[in-house]
Design a protein that fits this description.
Layout (H helix, E strand, L loop, with lengths): L1 H8 L1 H34 L5 H9 L6 H12 L4 H9 L13 H25 L3 H9 L4 H12 L1 H16 L3 H7 L6 H10 L4 H25 L3 H4 L8
């Protein structure tokens, strides 16, 4: 219990835990805002190229995570592409802006890597929406926005919940991206746990931190399932999500 007391009594660990939680929330929200329109468009499109669109969304998985993160270092660095465009080409800024090694850089990298994980559950959920319901709403006088808000969105809540959980858990415990894009001043919970085990060799404190991480994730998953019901996404026979 002394290790848990150390975590809660030390501002550094509490700050890192809270920062990791807020970054994961931001990544989840941004990923959903990007993934939902993409999944909605692909699910409802009447084209023979729909599978090609899905393949293009999954294509980033074929590229190594380290390579993709190194690419963001080149893009966000002071001599990177964004600063080159803003300073040299457009002249909007007089000097390069420090974007790398910041929470913003971490969020950008995490969204890029984990956003495809949000698309697949959303696509599965949106594809199951009964088109006759949306047509009935339109025939009864509802506009596109009302039809989406009253008919489509409620039926896709399990997909939203599943995508949120997947992206949040992966972002909350991420290690490589915060280490490469955030630097030592913006470490997340995964980096702290790795340091406690691999550098400080304080396995007791590291285990306590990892246990708090697991408890947080389990509580969130349970809460989402109780509020929304993830079993509707996987079918009524999926007892493991109840």
């Amino acid at each position: 219990m002394a290790n848990y007391e150390t975590i809660f009594a030390t501002n550094y660990y509490a700050t890192v835990f809270l920062k990791s939680f807020l970054i994961a929330i931001a990544v989840t929200v941004i990923s959903l805002l990007i993934a939902y329109p993409a999944a909605y468009h692909i699910a409802f499109m009447k084209s023979k190229y729909r599978n090609l669109y899905l393949l293009m969304l999954i294509l980033p998985f074929w590229i190594n995570l380290i390579i993709r993160t190194f690419a963001w270092q080149l893009i966000l660095g002071q001599g990177g592409f964004i600063n080159y465009v803003l300073v040299t080409l457009l002249g909007v800024l007089e000097a390069p802006v420090q974007m790398l090694y910041s929470p913003v850089a971490i969020i950008v990298g995490l969204v890029h890597v984990f956003m495809p994980f949000a698309v697949i559950p959303l696509y599965t959920s949106i594809e199951r929406v009964d088109q006759s319901h949306t047509e009935a709403a339109r025939n009864l006088g509802a506009n596109r926005l009302q039809t989406f808000y009253e008919v489509t969105l409620p039926q896709t809540l399990p997909g939203i919940a599943a995508s949120s959980i997947i992206v949040f858990v992966l972002s909350f415990g991420s290690f490589v991206i915060p280490n490469m894009l955030g630097g030592q001043g913006n470490l997340m919970i995964g980096n702290i746990i790795a340091q406690l085990f691999g550098e400080s060799f304080d396995w007791a404190l590291g285990s306590a931190m990892a246990t708090l991480f697991v408890i947080t994730v389990v509580v969130l998953v349970y809460g989402f399932n109780r509020m929304i019901g993830l079993q509707s996404l996987y079918g009524s026979d999926a007892a493991w999500v109840r």
